[in-house]
Amino acid sequence: MMETRGCCASICQCFFEYSTPKILIIRSFKVGTLNRITQALVIAYVIGYVCVLNKGYQDTDAVLSSVTTKVKGIALTNTSDLGLRIWDVADYIIPPQEESSFFVLTNLLITLNQTQSHCPEVPKTGFDCTSDRDCKAGSRDTRGNGVQTGKCVRYSAVDKTCEVLAWCPLELDKEPPNPPMLADAENFTVLIKNSIRYPKFNFNKRNILPYVNKTYLEQCVFNRITDPDCPIFRLKDMVTEANEDFQTMAVHGGVMGVQIRWECDLDMPSSWCVPRYTFRRLDNKDPVNNVAPGYNFRFAKYYKNGNNEETRTLIKGFGIRFDVMVFGQAGKFNIVPTLLNVGAGLALLGLVTVVCDWIVLTCMTKKNIYNEQKYSYVDDFQLLSNETP
Amino acid sequence: MMETRGCCASICQCFFEYSTPKILIIRSFKVGTLNRITQALVIAYVIGYVCVLNKGYQDTDAVLSSVTTKVKGIALTNTSDLGLRIWDVADYIIPPQEESSFFVLTNLLITLNQTQSHCPEVPKTGFDCTSDRDCKAGSRDTRGNGVQTGKCVRYSAVDKTCEVLAWCPLELDKEPPNPPMLADAENFTVLIKNSIRYPKFNFNKRNILPYVNKTYLEQCVFNRITDPDCPIFRLKDMVTEANEDFQTMAVHGGVMGVQIRWECDLDMPSSWCVPRYTFRRLDNKDPVNNVAPGYNFRFAKYYKNGNNEETRTLIKGFGIRFDVMVFGQAGKFNIVPTLLNVGAGLALLGLVTVVCDWIVLTCMTKKNIYNEQKYSYVDDFQLLSNETP
Amino acid sequence: MMETRGCCASICQCFFEYSTPKILIIRSFKVGTLNRITQALVIAYVIGYVCVLNKGYQDTDAVLSSVTTKVKGIALTNTSDLGLRIWDVADYIIPPQEESSFFVLTNLLITLNQTQSHCPEVPKTGFDCTSDRDCKAGSRDTRGNGVQTGKCVRYSAVDKTCEVLAWCPLELDKEPPNPPMLADAENFTVLIKNSIRYPKFNFNKRNILPYVNKTYLEQCVFNRITDPDCPIFRLKDMVTEANEDFQTMAVHGGVMGVQIRWECDLDMPSSWCVPRYTFRRLDNKDPVNNVAPGYNFRFAKYYKNGNNEETRTLIKGFGIRFDVMVFGQAGKFNIVPTLLNVGAGLALLGLVTVVCDWIVLTCMTKKNIYNEQKYSYVDDFQLLSNETP
């Protein structure tokens, strides 16, 4: 009975105990100054760098984005194959819609009236021949345009090449026209509509800012200085901002990155959260370690002639693909990262004592006095030697 | 010899030293209670909020996703231009496949039998004319449809406009039909197959859950209450969930976000990791600060007539683009974030001593006794004044 | 006057105070060893695991990527419908360009010369009929191919089905050919150009590495052992690496993930930052809980015949979609995460004292001596009892 009461009491006593370390206070100009300066440095770092610059008190979220684009403009070409011809948006945007990029045709090699038939290969190493023995029926070379029939036929006055089953006539292996056929593309404009969402903070915004009205949108063109919020871009301006020349790039094509950066501090008014546009060329124009420079692809338009035979027009289209890349981070005050950073900061303040102690107890002239006061000893070795005899 | 031995011994001694702070224990109801409450608060925060709610003990990874979609349904239209006409999936999905979105045509303006030729511009400010002097040969206005020839020609009984080289006849600048032509699209269904991966944890999953069998999949339609795991969605249901009216949206088109959220706690059974579907309209339907509302694009079908002349059917297609947006985070126990959070928590416990000390040593009635016991002083100033005389 | 001076002096004194805890040093083999081992463990964890393995001293950034692809190869098919036919890149890549994926047609069901007209439905449960009463005019079943006219017509010698308005003749509901029609697709090669950017560190790189020259690129094919840096991939090799059989997969189609991982330590030379390619099948080939296995979609080529009537060739295309998925993280030294981890590590070192204290003061034989030396008491209860009498 007595014992349980004693046990109870001791638990109680324990609960109401408050442990606080015993502190030695050293009053000294040198030591005090050293201490305060080190403390100030740590606090300045925690507040200045972690909290203000890196916003360590904020929880962050990555952006979810949706992009639609609409290109406008008309180009005129005049070639021997096609005559005078107008190109509108249904002609030069391929495919007609994509999720977050668009391709503008700027140059092309056209091969009209192809049918599935037999014709001599384009002269190239491996396809030249002098007799049928040089050609292997059924052989399909990845560099070739069809399947060899095994015959050797006349390609031109001087050349004989292996005959192939292919879409004939074959596309000629030549450089794209320079200047580019759709040189007018530099004046095309594109309206980029971008809607973003930060799901963690339930925050939505669009790149058409609230103060922008319909009248302005109908005639504005993006300009970094005069119209930085206009979402309509002239193709040439985008390419120029990336330090490239549109007409040069248009010849072989390329890939442009339209980077929209949404860096949002949601502790601030939401009107401060605005998109920043930058432009960058994404493909490698360096001709040294490069293969298939620029950007091109082949596509065809299929027709049926009077005899119900399929013919096609093959187009090797060169052009600029614009990839709209939306990125950014939103931050908003949250207690967890705040306390995480404050905790880490406090732990760093603990370092101050370690550093100062070391200096005080080894370098100061009065180190012996300090040592004497700071440390007490329980010396097992001494006890041991005392006990031994 | 003696010295090295002494040095060795002192290093040894140092190694076997254990430093522990001297502690003053204050046994007091008030102080003890204060101390325990503050400690309890900090521990409750660390365990409750950081560990349980925010799962601070988990390492996280972002989702990698792949989406395929398959739309089903048939629409019937009846117009003066086209007569009675059936639209199937090959007609209304443009382009036929995309990576993680699909476009369903819901309304259209069609311009049949366009050829490259000359015709008067559509009457609009800037294109009206009274004589050839009002038209500038070679001028191409971004708002126009072609390149002006410099002639002023009769457009209708009342209007004269500048002649252009273009795809003629020109598309009429009119509003899309209302009700929309493919109103039947509301009953189309789409099967969305989504496969995700968390590379850091080597975890794969699909949105067709293991217990779902083929028979169920062949006839189910997603319903938030009765069929929340069915990956087949009726288009109208998706639009309705986003608080929009399908028929209204179908007229001018729009962009819908199909959000699939994979929030997975991989410390739990993997069967708890299931997708959550939500639907949101992504484009701006607010007519005030908007240009080109809705979602539309132009595309063409190219034909060749008997004379080998190219003609095309231009379609301005209005429709709904569904962007499948997959996001989420997986978390799994990892020792590094755990210790990071525990460490920060411990540092916060250090704060408790600071706060309690301040209260104990300044506010308590017996503060002088506590002060006396807690602090010892080495006073350089006093030493100084003692030495001076 | 005297007072303000005193106040000033006390603030000064306070400023130059340095507080350092009073320490009890226990010199003991057991206790010292325990202490050092625990410390060593914590320090080893902080340095070894957090800093070296998890690179806790680095700030990280996610990758921004742009991908272009170019497929090469020719396939030959021989069917009763189409005769001997060559398929080139313009025929089998649909759509001709996409942002970060490409689709290769490997198998197809073709329905030639469809026109908008009337024909009997394909026999299936629900479409069979014996008289006109079994068919409902205007009914459009999602499983059907058109809108019913209400008539019951002869489909074959044995079957009568409801007549529909549709693109006739209807596509037959049959399995795709096996072996696949474009079996040659296994030898197609694809050049994948990938350009990445870590915006936070302003770091760009391409998957065509600096030492790779044009000559090598023109003839190399990726091989994990002999050519790990060649960005040209044989389709069959990719599928084989994912432990799948190309010819089997080609029959019903599928989705392949081409994963490019850029794990970059930007504290190291940038030439160490290289892409790692892995391949994985993304769709579910398990036939049990699956619907519409494989990957296929329908598209059409539209023609006009002599009477200006629209006809189309419907193709149900089966094939492999390759999704290029670029992911990875770059890390670079940054003072904030470093100090965060160091701070948390220090706080963990504080734990060492807690653990050692507990052992020393409860388990050691000389615990009473230690206790006596470590703790002083201010006992309010005792004071209380002293005061009471």
List keywords for this structure.
28% helix, alpha+beta, 389 residues, Helix Hairpins, atp-gated p2x4 ion channel fold, 7-stranded mixed beta sheet, 4-stranded antiparallel beta sheet, 9 helices, 2 domains, homotrimer
Radius of gyration of chain A: 38 Å
- Going by CATH, the homologous superfamily of the largest domain in chain A would be atp-gated p2x4 ion channel domain
Q: Largest sheet of chain A at a glance?
A: 7 strands, mixed
Question: What fraction, in percent, of the residue positions of chain A are helical?
Answer: 25-40%
Number of strands of chain A: 19
Q: What count of helical segments of chain A does DSSP give?
A: 9
Question: Into how many domains do the coordinates of chain A divide?
Answer: 2
Order of helices and strands of chain A: HEEHEEEEHEEEEEHEHHEEEEEEHHEH
Top CATH class of the largest domain in chain A: Mainly Beta
Which two protein chains have the largest interface (Cβ within 8 Å of the partner's Cβ), and how many residues from each? A-B, 80 and 94 residues
- CATH topology value of the largest domain in chain A: atp-gated p2x4 ion channel fold
Q: In whole angstroms, how far apart are the ends of chain A?
A: 45 Å
